[in-house]
Amino acid sequence: MRAGPPWAVAHAFRQHSRLAYCTASVEAGRRYTKHYLNLSNGVEALDGLLTAGLPSEAISFCRIQSSQCESQDYNGLLSNLDHDMMIHLALGHECCVYDFGSRGAVWIDPDGTSSERYVPRAIWWGLEWWRYALNNLWELPTPRPPLLRGVNVERRFREALCALPKKQRTRLKYYRAFTADGLAEVRLLGYYAAARTDGDRAAHRSMLLGLSRQLNEKGSGAGQEPEAFGMSLHDPLVMSGRVPMGRG
Questions:
Q1: In 3-state terms, what secondary structure has residue 191?
Q2: Within 13 Å of residue 141, how many CA atoms lie on the same side as its CB?
Q3: pLDDT tens digits, residue range 209-247?
Q4: 168 near 137, Cβ under 8 Å?
């Protein structure tokens, strides 16, 4: 992963994506990719991703809180790992998380040189914990060691994993039954750049409302009503004998 200005997300997306965005490919060598914006700074990636050609309806959201990473709230972080992402990871799909950092820090590059990078804690800490927990709870064969800024934290993460409440372990292990044949480890990637709108809720709201307008213009995208293929709408007002509200 390379740091860069916000527009670099579009470039990174072009370089990284290996799939026609919305539909799962069955062609050899191709893999479905899901795209998640980490709330709330991650919404800055909207413009870059849409410019790169990603359809608005293909964008999803997640929430990895930096405060939970700082406090090492292992269970709290996993509680925010949602079912949509887990089923895609279990099926072997690639899940990309986008976020923007507000504080630069010096990182040592592989060649020994140092550089300032704006890697959010959600990316270098949170994703590493999610990745480690799922690889191990799903008993995948070749998980890589967990690294936090180059330091192997296998022992620390192992202790945290063993200390998880049974309810949380059961929730995460549910998806083990759906893991794709031959899956060696979860395909969870993080992209970052320096933030321009850190903490600016008004700016983030404006970006999200812009996305919402695009989605509303496109409609549901289902092609036909669910009733056409045997589904029925459950309306509690109808079931209780009252006037239905409709779908407004």
A1: strand
A2: 5
A3: 999 999 998 876 656 788 888 888 888 877 777 665 555
A4: no
